[in-house]
Write a structure and sequence with these properties.
The complex is a heterodimer of chains A (about 130) and B (about 700).
Chain A lengths: L6 E7 L5 H9 L11 E3 L8 E5 L2 E2 H13 L5 E5 L1 H5 L9 E3 L9 E3 L6 H12 L2
Parallel strand pairs in A: 1-2, 1-3, 3-5, 5-7
Antiparallel strand pairs in A: 4-6
Helix pairs in contact in A: 1-4
Chain B lengths: L6 H22 L5 H24 L4 E5 L8 E5 L1 H27 L5 H16 L6 H19 L7 H32 L4 H7 L5 H18 L9 H7 L2 H26 L5 H24 L3 H28 L3 H36 L10 H4 L1 H14 L6 H15 L10 H33 L6 H4 L6 H19 L5 H10 L12 E2 L4 E3 L5 E2 L1 H24 L27 H11 L1 H4 L2 E8 L7 E9 L3 H21 L7 H22 L1
Helix pairs in contact in B: 1-2, 1-4, 2-3, 2-4, 3-4, 3-10, 3-13, 3-19, 3-20, 4-5, 5-6, 5-10, 6-7, 6-8, 6-9, 8-10, 9-10, 9-12, 10-12, 10-13, 11-12, 11-17, 12-13, 12-16, 12-17, 13-15, 13-16, 13-19, 13-20, 15-17, 15-19, 16-17, 16-19
The chains are: A alpha/beta (about 130), B mainly alpha (about 700).
């Protein structure tokens, strides 16, 4: 699964409460500094090796998430960040929800937590970079 | 009447006779066949003009005097190489324009007798202006040209209100220009004692310098206003867009050239050069026109207005060449003078080729979509592939990039200017040392802005997605319109690839203007494939350049294909265009002409002084919710606002003030007449 030391990541908010975004921000901040392990956030799926998907997939974001996944050049990986992305979390049963990320695109790595701690995110990304 | 029967004379005579016959037949013919009759006759007139012009450039001379036609002075025509060059250019533009007009006038509701009968007369008037050999003949032909073109500008006055306004501007400015020419040439003729050009040439040396200066400045104002030179350009950007497109092409590619012809004829030939300040003035006017014209064009969103403003730019570049030629000639640098004037004349020819193509293509767009506003066009590539291709070539030809047409002449012009620098053995004087680098900078800035302008015109107008239903429904023009554009395009391709074919003709025209000395050094450049400058070092091979560019493009495409095909797992994947995962991209996301020009507008904010207006409409329930935002930008012509508006206001105020004198009483009016006669008698008594 490791991608040889350097992974370009595109973040997709599929319907998150923004709690996971705050933690991702911390993971790439000066304290946890995920970039030193070779993970880097990029601005377009065309530049990416992996998608970092947060939140439960809502109706409005299902198609854009699928298109974003199709836009990533292969080989590609998907990381589901947070409990909502893994199994709907607190939004289970809500009316506008399509399902967890794995219902829409194939998921390779899951990071648990509501929200996951930055250490957990860095740990999950290190599985991708292999460093 | 004495006349030598040769191709030049026969061609010009045939052209005149054909034009008159066509006008008569077109008046009599039924509306159904009128466009065919009028346009075919005009095309033949143009062809006869081309034959006469080429014969004159090749060395034939022709001289006709008809003493009885005009009272007092009669009419006399003489054809030399300089006039022949302009006649050939005008005739060629007329051929392309008339072939186009057969279909265009039919589909545009221009079958009226007026338009069809005046069109050949306009062409004929333009053909005889450069052959005029006396002041009286020149003025009559000039006025005929102005009147016929005015009638053609007004052709669509029933469809659009702006046409009347444009016509009024054109009428006033062209007649003020005519007055300036009249004043200048009559002063000249009064000193010469005769109005034939031969007598003027003889008298030029004995004339006091200040009279020569007055003559030159007056004719420069008159001819410059016809050439659309800043600050006398206000009519051009109005009249050229509002005229029917084939007339726009003729005005922009044929008529404005005659302003340049007049300046060269009077300044170089009749007055035989002159002091340095004349040519510095011409150079400065040219440089200002070039930069200001293209800057206005870069801001413009109206396709035909943009082309008209680009005409001001190109005439400015030509004047830079003319001014530099005069400057070098006064300094005794005949070789450089020949080179600069040759570059200017080559640019006249090149500009005629690509500008007629562009105006005809713009007319094609107007016919298909009904609009000239670039912000409402786009996506014409799908419906009008041939017009798109032709306009694309025209846009490339108009920007000074290889393999375009303007590149060759602007390269020659820059060579002349750079070789004129004191450090490269040119003219050693402080004024030249300052003027030449500034002129080079102005030409370079113009070239850069022209590229941006034509990328905007082509990219926003023809590529991407259509912005309106009209643009989406656009269909290709009929074959005859395409043929007219094709003729102009073919001419500009030949000029771009093999400019050597016209250089001998330009050499003899330069010699006929009295620049470049008596020896063979009048030839500015020689060689068909490779242009070699005569007298100074410099060479250019447009054909080789084109082949190299084509080769490099093919090589790049081949390498990219080979690399992508040989890649591991190189199966091609068809992917959706990345649109951020949302819906498909819409035409509202495209660059508009306004937004494309915005960075340039910001750079030149102090020069163009745009007026922007933002209207925000709020929701009723909360000021924080915006319902609509409307943004408008207008780039008014600043020179026009500062120079013309105060003048017009003053004239209007004067008229209002004068109204007090007109009380309606006949006694009072008789009194005015009486006092005026008394005042005149007193004046005569004092001065005599």
């Amino acid at each position: 699964m490791a991608l040889g030391g350097s992974v370009q990541i595109r973040h997709v908010d599929a319907g998150s409460c923004n709690g996971c975004e705050v933690e991702i921000g911390s993971a790439f901040g000066p304290v946890y500094d995920a970039e030193r392990y070779g993970a880097r956030l990029v601005a377009s799926p065309r530049h990416a090796d992996a998608l970092l998907v947060t939140g439960v997939v809502t109706r409005n974001m299902a198609a854009p998430l699928r298109r974003t996944f199709e836009a990533v050049p292969g080989p590609k990986l998907v990381v589901a960040v947070g409990d909502c992305a893994r199994n709907r979390g607190v939004f289970a049963g809500a009316y506008g929800v399509v399902g967890p990320v794995s219902d829409v695109v194939p998921v390779d790595v899951e990071i648990a937590g509501c929200p996951p701690r930055p250490e957990a995110i860095v740990e999950g990304l290190r599985k991708l970079t292999g460093r | 009447m004495n006349s030598a029967i040769n191709t030049a004379g026969a061609g010009l005579g045939t052209a005149g006779a054909l034009a008159v016959c066509t006008a008569l037949v077109a008046t009599a013919a039924p509306a159904r066949v009128r466009p065919v009759v009028g346009s075919v006759g005009t095309a033949l007139t143009g062809a006869a003009g081309v034959a006469a012009g080429i014969a004159a450039v090749a060395g034939q001379s022709m001289s006709v005097t008809l003493p009885g036609v005009l009272p007092l002075s009669g009419v006399s025509w003489t054809l030399d190489a300089l006039g022949g060059l302009f006649i050939a250019v005008t005739g060629a533009v007329a051929v392309a324009g008339s072939v186009y007009a057969i279909s265009y006038t039919r589909s545009h509701g221009l079958e009226s007798r007026g338009v069809q009968a005046v069109f050949p007369l306009f062409v004929a008037a333009m053909l005889v202006v450069p052959a005029a050999a006396s002041v009286g003949t020149l003025l009559v032909c000039w006025e005929l040209m102005a009147l016929t073109s005015l009638l053609l500008v007004l052709a669509e006055h029933r469809q659009r209100d702006e046409v009347t306004d444009a016509g009024r501007w054109y009428a006033v400015m062209t007649h003020l220009g005519f007055l300036a020419i009249l004043a200048g040439l009559l002063t000249f003729a009064a000193h010469a004692g005769d109005d034939s050009f031969a007598a003027l040439r003889r008298a030029a040396h004995t004339m006091p310098p200040w009279v020569a200066g007055v003559v030159f400045v007056a004719t420069l104002i008159g001819f410059g206003s016809k050439a659309g030179i800043v600050p006398l350009h206000a009519w051009l950007a109005r009249a050229h867009p509002e005229a029917p497109s084939h007339v726009s092409a003729l005005m922009s590619a044929g008529m404005v050239n005659l302003g340049i012809y007049g300046i060269i004829r009077v300044g170089q030939d009749l007055l035989g050069g002159g002091p340095r300040w004349w040519w510095l003035l011409v150079l400065a006017l040219g440089a200002v026109s070039a930069v200001y014209g293209i800057l206005q064009a870069a801001m413009s969103t109206d396709l035909k207005r943009l082309l008209g403003q680009s005409t001001t730019e190109n005439m400015g570049l030509v004047l830079v060449g003319v001014g530099a030629a005069g400057l070098f000639a006064t300094a005794g640098q005949q070789v450089l003078a020949g080179l600069a004037l040759g570059a200017a004349l080559l640019h006249v020819i090149n500009h005629a080729a690509f500008k007629s193509l562009l105006f005809l293509a713009a007319g094609s767009v107007l016919r298909a979509t009904g609009t000239r506003d670039l912000d409402n066009l786009g996506g014409l590539r799908a419906g009008m592939p041939i017009t798109t291709g032709l306009f694309g070539w025209g846009a490339l030809a108009a920007s000074a990039l290889p393999p375009g047409t303007a590149f060759v002449s602007e390269w020659l012009l820059l060579q002349a200017l750079i070789h004129g620098l004191p450090s490269s053995g040119g003219v050693t004087s402080t004024v030249t040392a300052i003027a030449m680098p500034v002129a080079v900078a102005a030409v370079a800035l113009t070239a850069g802005l022209a590229v941006a302008t034509f990328i905007k015109a082509f990219g926003v107008g023809f590529l991407a997605k259509p912005r309106t239903e009209a643009a989406a429904q656009a269909r290709e023009s009929p074959p005859l319109m395409l043929a007219g554009m094709g003729l102009a395009a073919a001419a500009s391709v030949v000029l771009a690839v093999l400019p050597g074919v016209v250089l001998p003709g330009i050499g003899s025209a330069v010699a006929a203007a009295g620049v470049g000395g008596e020896s063979g050094s009048a030839r500015a450049a020689a060689g068909v494939v490779t242009l070699r400058l005569v007298g100074v070092t410099g060479a250019l091979s447009p054909l080789v350049l084109v082949l190299a560019l084509l080769g490099a493009s093919l090589l790049t495409a081949g390498v990219v294909r080979a690399v992508t095909a040989g890649r591991v797992g190189g199966a091609r994947r068809v992917a959706r265009l990345w649109d951020c995962g949302g819906g498909p991209l819409s035409s509202r996301m495209e660059y508009t002409a306004t937004s494309f020009a915005e960075p340039l507008q910001r750079v030149f904010d102090d020069v163009v002084a745009p007026e922007t207006d933002v209207d925000v409409d709020h929701h009723e329930e909360s000021r924080y919710l915006v319902r609509t935002v409307e943004y408008r930008r207008r780039v008014p012509d600043r020179i026009e606002q500062r120079l013309y508006q105060p003048l017009l206001k003053a004239v209007a105020a004067w008229g209002v003030a004068g109204r007090g004198l007109a009380s309606g009483s006949v006694h009072r009016y008789l009194g005015y007449g009486f006092y005026t006669v008394c005042a005149l008698l007193l004046l005569l008594a004092v001065t005599r």
